[in-house]
Design goal:
There is one protein chain. With 264 residues, this protein is α/β, with parallel strands linked by helices. It contains twelve helices and nine strands. Helix 1 links the parallel strand 1 and strand 2. The longest helix has 18 residues. The radius of gyration is 18 Å and the shape is globular.
Length: 264
């Protein structure tokens, strides 16, 4: 399996803190069946200055230790790049890291609570520039939770979505878990990843969430979310996906809850 979104690089963000912890992190992933880990530290101006050069340097320091202790584990560079006004320029000139350093696939992070401005235009400009946009954990983004058609709109522009294991398993609450199932069943997500930050609270395990996803869409399609699809994106290849069709707006958790009360 491929884990496309992790915070394994030690001491660069809110993820792993030491090299020893990074090795333990990789070992947990290995025991769960992961053979490729993509290091995707936060890249956000004013918070974590993890540009392309910094990520490649940190990865170069960690790789020899992982290779010695876990032969066969592949460690690739990347970043979880936060939305910014100059993002297109930063990707084009190589400052913003891309997945596998392929210069083509961007893991894009939105604020979980604040609404973005001009998101569709940004995704369009990235697409025109030859960049494949993968949204990190869209199921946790309030902008999409409040109106799933906003998410459908960026998918129609050629973007993809990466869903998180903790969301599938209910770690972030019922509303996000229900939205996760909705997105998976509609085939509106393309990658399942751990977004792991440590070995305990948010470990790099895919297996349990993969089994849950398989119960929704079948084993073969579920496994593509951790094999074929992330592999293609790491190669910088667009996925062959049907255009998402408009769906009725999903009722909020509060509407569904009060609706159930009225039926009693």
């Amino acid at each position: 399996m491929i884990d496309l979104h992790t915070h394994i690089l030690p001491g660069v963000d809110d993820g792993v803190k030491s090299e020893d912890e990074a090795v333990a992190f990789a070992r947990v992933a290995w025991e769960d069946g992961v053979r490729t880990i993509v290091a995707t530290p936060h890249c956000k101006e004013g918070f974590y200055f993890n540009d392309r050069r910094a990520v490649l340097e940190a990865l170069a320091q960690l790789r020899p230790r992982i290779a010695r202790e876990l032969p066969g584990m592949t460690l690739l560079p990347g970043a979880e790049v936060h939305l910014s006004p100059d993002l297109v320029e930063r990707v084009r000139d190589g400052r913003a890291p891309t997945l596998a350093d392929n210069g083509r696939t961007l893991l894009l992070e939105l604020s979980l609570t604040q609404y973005p401005v001009g998101l569709e235009e940004l995704v369009f400009q990235l697409r025109v520039g030859g960049i494949l946009t993968v949204f990190a954990h869209p199921e946790r983004v309030r902008y999409f939770l409040d109106d799933p058609q906003r998410y459908a709109a960026v998918l129609r522009l050629g973007a993809y979505g990466q869903i998180t294991t903790g969301s599938i398993l209910g770690q972030f609450g019922e509303e996000i878990q229900e939205f996760s199932e909705e997105l998976v069943r509609k085939r509106w997500v393309h990658v399942l990843a751990s977004d792991a930050h440590n070995v305990r609270g948010r470990p790099p395990r895919l297996g349990s969430a993969l089994a849950r996803v398989a119960s929704w869409i079948g084993e073969a399609e579920a496994r593509r979310l951790v094999t074929d699809y992330p592999a293609a994106l790491l190669r910088g290849e667009a996925l062959e996906e049907e255009e998402p069709q408009p769906q009725p707006r999903r009722a909020s958790v509060w509407t569904r809850w009060f609706g159930r009360r009225g039926e009693r």
